[in-house]
From TrEMBL:
TM spans (from-to): 68-91, 217-241, 253-272
Domain of life: Bacteria
Source organism per UniProt: Streptomyces pacificus
Name of the molecule in the record: Type II secretion system protein GspF domain-containing protein
Taxonomic classification: Bacteria, Bacillati, Actinomycetota, Actinomycetes, Kitasatosporales
Membrane-protein topology: Multi-pass membrane protein
Key words of the record: Cell membrane, Membrane, Transmembrane, Transmembrane helix
Subcellular location: Cell membrane
Entry's Gene Ontology cellular component terms: plasma membrane
Main location: membrane
Amino acid sequence: MTAAAVWAAVCAGVAVCLTAGRDGGLQRARLLACGGVAPEGPRWASSAHWRRLLGRGRREWLCLPAGALLAVWGESVLPLLAGAVAVPLTARRLRACERRRAAAGRAAAVVALCGGIVGELRAGGQPGQALLAVGRATGALGAAEAAVLSAARFGGDVPAELRRASHEPGAEGLAGLAACWLVAVDSGAGLATAVDRLEAVLRSEWEQQDCVRVQLAGAWSTVVVLALLPVIGLALGWALGADPLRILLHSPAGLGCLVVGGLLEAVGLFWATRIVRAAEQP
């Protein structure tokens, strides 16, 4: 099958999907206007379905159509195999990025939780009531939210539950809140003062980490440019009238250059990423 035939098939499939989705929408609108019940259209033809599919962390599957496109273009199965291998690697990378974003959001939520507790205590509230008032709103407690709030409501061991909740990434500040809570309960010291100091320390650390991330934006741009250099080289080859994919995929010298270049690119990206990640560590 030639590349033109493949492109024609792809375009025809896209047209069918769009037509099916539009016809289903028109049919549902007409039925609703007449007071009927609108049937559900095919799930695969729904744009909302594709948005949910990509929003659930399945963006790594885009490597397969990209590899298939290069396979058709270069008339070789190697790009398709590379796309299949890239799916789990890309998935691992995306999951790590999601975990880092979740940890950063949790750290900010812990700071907000401490500030809210201080406000409630200074307004005259009791410690348990203050935790109940702001614990659910900030989302800092994560999966342990029900256990912590139940302990606060029914007189349970709040410090122990807070320490368990602090084991989640980004929620390490809850261990300090547990220590403040325990000292205040045992010695009768003012909880508001201790949590206020804890909130100041946690906010300072969070702002410092945020400042470091902003300053490392230039380094991440360098990593991105390093990752795009092979694509830029291929584009320059096409602009000069050459056929770089055919040379890389259909000649022994090209295959050797492809393997060596791919290994060097992977090592360079790994090295540059490790350097930037090390600078981001607190």
